[in-house]
Design goal:
globular
C-alpha cells in the first residue's frame, strides 16, 4: 500500500507539473508581464504545427515512459540508467546537428556517467519492462534536447525559449490527457479505507512544485540555446548527483561510500570534460588558422605566377 500511494503521488505530481507549466507559459505568452515581454511574430514556419507536435510527442512519450518505469523499478535504478545520457547525446548531436566531439571529450564523459551510477547504486531493483521504459525515456529525452537545440539556434527561424516551452507543453498536455485517464490512478477509497487525501498544504505544495517545474523548464531551454547539447547533458548529470546529496540533507538519508565516491567522480569528470573541451577548441582554432594561412600562401603564389 505505501508503494501504491507513492506511485499515486508521483503520477499526480507529474500531471500538475505539465498543466502548471502550460498555464503559466500561456500567461507569459499572451498576457503582458514584467518577467517576459512576448514579441508577436508576423509569420511562423510553414511546418510550425508539425514541429511543435513532434517535440510535444517526445515530451509526452518521456512522461508516459517515466510513469511506466516508476511503477516497475526503483527511482535509484532509473537514475542509474539516466547516467548514460551523455553518450546518447554525443551520438544524436553528431547525427542531427553534425556536432563534432573529439576523443578526449568522449573519454571524459565516462567518469561523469560512472560517478552518477555509483551515487544511485543503492536499492537497485531490476525489471525488464521498467528497464526498457527507463532506457527509452533516457533516449527520448536526449533526442528532445538535441532537436530543441536545433530549433533554438536555427538558421532561418529561431524560437525563443518561452515560445518553445509553451507550444511544446501545450501539445504534450493534449496528448497526455488520454494517457492520464488510463495510467493515472484516481484516488478512491478501497476496502482498506485508504485514500489519497489532498489537504490544503499538499495543494499549495503541488502548485509551488508546478511553478518550480515551469522555471526549470524555461531555464533548461534558455541554456540549450547557449551551450551544446553534450555540455547540457553533463550539467544535467551533475544536477542528478547533487539531488542525491540534497535528499541526504533534507531526508537525513544515510551517506554511503558509493555515494561519496560517485559524487567525487562526477566532479572530476566535469573538470576533465571542461579541460577536454578547451583542448578541442584550441585544436580546432589552430587547424582553422593553419588552413587560412595555407590558403593565403596559395593565393600569393597564384598572383605571383600570374604576374610572371
Amino acid at each position: 500500500m505505501p508503494k501504491q500511494r507513492a506511485e499515486q503521488h508521483s503520477q499526480v505530481k507529474g500531471a500538475v507539473q505539465m498543466l502548471s507549466t502550460t498555464v503559466i507559459g500561456c500567461l507569459k505568452m499572451f498576457v503582458p508581464c514584467c518577467l517576459y515581454q512576448h514579441k508577436s511574430r508576423n509569420e511562423y514556419p510553414s511546418n510550425f504545427i508539425m514541429i511543435m507536435l513532434f517535440v510535444g510527442l517526445m515530451r509526452f512519450t518521456t512522461v508516459v515512459l517515466g510513469l511506466v518505469s516508476l511503477k516497475n523499478v526503483a527511482v535509484s535504478f532509473a537514475e542509474t540508467v539516466k547516467s548514460s545520457a551523455p553518450i546518447f547525446t554525443v551520438i544524436m548531436s553528431r547525427l542531427i546537428l553534425g556536432e563534432y566531439t573529439g576523443l578526449w571529450v568522449n573519454l571524459s564523459l565516462f567518469p561523469v556517467m560512472a560517478g552518477l551510477g555509483l551515487c544511485t547504486a543503492t536499492e537497485i531493483s531490476f525489471n525488464m519492462l521498467g528497464f526498457s521504459a527507463a532506457l527509452s525515456t533516457n533516449i527520448m529525452d536526449c533526442l528532445q534536447n538535441v532537436f530543441s537545440k536545433k530549433l533554438l539556434s536555427g538558421d532561418t527561424y529561431k524560437f525563443s525559449p518561452p515560445e518553445l516551452q509553451f507550444y511544446t507543453s501545450a501539445a504534450a498536455v493534449i496528448m497526455l490527457i488520454p494517457a492520464w485517464l488510463f495510467l493515472l490512478d484516481i484516488p478512491t477509497v478501497g476496502k482498506s479505507g485508504q485514500s489519497l487525501i489532498f489537504s490544503q498544504d499538499i495543494i499549495l505544495l503541488l502548485l509551488f512544485d508546478g511553478c518550480l517545474f515551469h522555471l526549470q523548464s524555461v531555464t533548461a531551454y534558455a541554456l540549450m540555446g547557449r551551450i551544446s547539447p553534450v555540455t547540457f547533458s553533463v550539467a544535467s548529470t551533475v544536477k542528478h548527483a547533487l539531488s542525491v546529496w540534497l535528499s541526504i540533507i533534507v531526508f537525513s538519508n544515510q551517506v554511503t561510500i558509493l555515494s561519496a565516491t560517485g559524487t567525487v567522480l562526477v566532479f572530476i569528470g566535469v573538470f576533465l570534460y571542461n579541460k577536454a573541451r578547451q583542448f578541442q577548441r584550441a585544436t580546432l582554432q589552430a587547424m582553422a588558422a593553419e588552413q587560412n594561412h595555407k590558403a593565403l600562401l596559395h593565393d600569393q603564389d597564384f598572383k605571383a605566377s600570374q604576374s610572371h
